[in-house]
Amino acid sequence: MENRIRSYRIQKNITQEELANGIVSTSYLSKIENGSVEPSQEVLNLLYERLGVDLQEINPKNISIQIKKCYRNILLGNETLATDELSRLKQKGSLYEKKFEIKIQLLESRILINQQDLDGALRLLSKYDRNQESFSIAAKRFYHINKGLIDYYSGNFVDSNAHFLMAEKLIDELSDNLEIGEIYYFIALTYSQLQKASHSIESTKKALKVYQSTYLQKKCVYCHILLGINYRKIREWDQAEESYQWARTICENFNYHEILDSVEQNLGFLYEKKQDHMKALQCYMNSLRYKQKNQDHSGMILTYMSIVRLYYEKENSREAAYWMEKASSIFAEELNLSKDIFIQYKVYKSLLSSDSDDELEEYLSKEVIPYYTENKSYENIVTYSTILSKLYEKKSRYKPAGVYWKKAIEAYQKLVNV
Questions:
Q1: Higher pLDDT, 109 or 417
Q2: Bigger pLDDT: 377 or 52?
């Protein structure tokens, strides 16, 4: 502690003479600050009292407890509490031991990630990219989780998966169960994005087991949704529906109304894939009701487009156009759309218009299908290759139509073999 007296003194803008006056000589204080002498506890108490420092606040045990409390609030999704804890830690952060400074910066980077300030989080982490020798195992694990999240939100799913797998290797007997569950869940998310459904299911089940053992029902809901998505991808319809129904039941029992819109949206998509259009429409309408209540415009556009797609597939152009108009009415207001939703909007708006198909054909062939091919999104390759093939057939251009029918079939075969 004595070697940090100089840091406290400088922060308080106090000279050695002012601090030493009446306690010790200036030369003796200089030796204390240089670490060449070991003062008595009485002297230390007097020096810290004059500096206005509470010894309990800088006690390593207490700092560790604060850090763990902040991290646990992050893991539980208590962002406000976590941010408050971080603010208290940062007030004297530069005066803590190096290991605590590192952990506080890792906490700050995680909160910035959760706030979608990826650049800010990356700036904090970049200083440690080549220098982790002083990191504890827990700090290394936390570093890889944060790097994995930045890559995930940036769309770099391969690198993200590698970081999460590295975090998994660093799990030890001191790891918090919540952190272990989170690591498995993040691994599952990246596998899902990489179209490795079976791997994703395996990791999701591990996360679900942890969350069930700790009675974190909201986390269980997210796991059931992810299981449903991946079972749907591999055409395990019954298991997908069971997973979504579990998610719905938990939401209803624990009043997680803010998640029910996602459950209903995914359940609707499952029924759509099963060609049960009546159930699909009912689920989409349920989802829309929750999103309207929450004024979630981005989510509303997603559901509007799902309903448009449903009616278009049923060749009900009138209803499809009605719901497209609803999507268009809020489309300009919502700038934070995913690329998937933007593509859906542009494609179906063009399909329902009276304009020439030439522009749409070029958009599908030059941008949309290559994009989903690069990302190995087989479901979307099937969807948009089929649309393009039908556009060519309508013009009696059977050769390019055949090319894209073949592409759709190949993507479907890869999809069922994922």
A1: 109
A2: 377
Residue type, 315: E
Two structure tokens written together for 103: 């952990």
Tell me how far apart the alpha carbons of residues 259 and 247 are, in angstroms, rounded to a whole number: 9
Rounded CA gap, 45 and 23, in Å? 10
Q: Is residue 293 part of a domain?
A: yes
CATH number of the domain residue 315 falls in: 1.25.40.10
Q: Report the C-alpha gap between 219 and 207 in whole angstroms.
A: 9
| Overall domain count for the chain | 3
Of residues 268, 262, 295, the one with CA closest to residue 282: 268
| Angle formed at CA 414 by CA 412 and CA 418, multiple of 5 degrees | 120
- pLDDT tens digits along 260-269: 999 999 999 9
Is the distance from CB of 111 to CB of 83 less than 8 angstroms?
yes
Reading the block at residue 417, the tokens are 């073999």
Domain check: are 336 and 384 in the same one? no
Task: Choose between 92 and 176: higher pLDDT.
Answer: 176
Q: Is the Cβ–Cβ distance between 229 and 192 less than 8 Å?
A: yes
Give 2's pLDDT tier (boundaries 50, 70, 90). very low
In order of 12, 37, 99, 214, the CA distances from 3 in angstroms are 16, 10, 15, 42
Sign of CA dihedral 49, 50, 54, 55: negative
In a domain, 268, yes or no: yes
CA distances from 203 to 9, 74, 151, 332, 377 (A): 51, 21, 19, 38, 20
pTM: 0.82
Pick 50 or 218 by higher pLDDT.
Answer: 218
Mean pLDDT of 358-373: 94
Give the Cα separation of 28 and 35 in Å (integer).
11
Domain that holds residue 315: 256-354
Q: Token digits for 298?
A: 């981005």
